[in-house]
Design brief:
single chain, alpha+beta, 42% helix
Length: 230
């Protein structure tokens, strides 16, 4: 079993140690492995070719994606290269452009048991387009609100993995708990300060944060299929 990432090998090694994984992690920033999988007709992943400024805001390491970062996928093969299971994340509004919704390990294992038992003469399995997912993505507005709170209401900040930090769900909840305090401060400002100026400040903040989300996330949202390893 291997985990392939679009990060450099040193980050793959850090994640391997941080998560105490029992299988190898392989860094593939030039997307050679996904390209080979496409050429051989096994699996074609999507890759984000957009700007990585948004990711860099949440990372404690230098984001290095010379060809963009590829979206998640799962591929199971026999030694004779017969496909037992394949799934890929297709970025859409339903999965927050690939941010959420992954097949559960139990679903993947049960799905490949029957093709494995069928023997090498069986055909490759079709793509799994409707897997049992680990967690439904939050509503888009909730997700954006968490990104804003994670950036302390100055800018949207990603929940990208960094060694030593809590898991993404834990950081998501922690960031979202900042909203009641933020709202309370605005309420207090309206009570104790001139409402006109406070209202003007609130309008300016809304314009600022809306522009930041539109610009940074818009530059990032460029998705293409990985068609070649060259």
């Amino acid at each position: 079993m291997y985990a392939i990432t679009s990060e450099p090998q040193y980050l793959a090694d850090q994640a391997h140690a941080h998560w105490d994984l029992s299988f190898d992690n392989v860094g593939d920033p030039h997307q050679e492995i996904p390209g080979i999988c496409n050429e051989r007709g096994w699996l074609t992943l999507y890759a984000s070719r957009g700007d990585t400024t948004f990711l860099q805001r949440g990372a404690q390491w230098q984001v290095e994606h010379p060809k963009g970062f590829f979206q998640p996928g799962v591929l199971a093969l026999t030694q004779s290269s017969r496909v037992l299971y394949r799934w890929r994340s297709v970025p859409s509004s339903a999965n927050l452009n690939g941010t959420a919704a992954r097949p559960t390990p139990e679903h993947v294992w049960h799905s490949l048991e029957s093709p494995l038992a069928a023997g090498d003469k069986a055909a490759d399995v079709a793509h799994d387009d409707n897997p049992e997912i680990d967690m439904a993505p939050p509503p888009r507005l909730v997700f954006l609100a968490a990104l804003i709170a994670n950036g302390w209401f100055i800018q949207a900040k990603s929940f990208v993995y960094s060694p030593g930090l809590d898991s993404t769900p834990a950081r998501f909840k922690k960031a979202f708990r900042r909203w009641p305090v933020f709202v309370a401060l605005w309420v207090a400002a309206f009570i104790f300060l001139p409402p006109l100026w406070v209202g003007l400040g609130l309008v300016c903040w809304c314009i600022w944060i809306a522009r930041d989300i539109h610009v940074t996330l818009g530059r990032m949202d460029v998705q293409e299929e990985i068609k070649t390893s060259r």
